[in-house]
Amino acid sequence: MPAPDPASAYAAPLVERLAQILDPVAFDDRAEPRTLGALWDQTCRRMTAQQYAARAIAAGWVPTSETAP
Length: 69
What we know:
Blueprint: H1 12-22, H2 36-58
């Protein structure tokens, strides 16, 4: 049985917002042509940022008024 996804245990908007703060390049959707390798790299970076965000929230991170969406 696979382990549960840590990002699914928390509010998705909070995980997404923190992930964007942790790695803004991973969420940069420019309209310029890219290679498949560049898209894959961005997708991997995005998933990694989401995992780190979920772990930070699980460890007790909470948004303050300065970082709240």
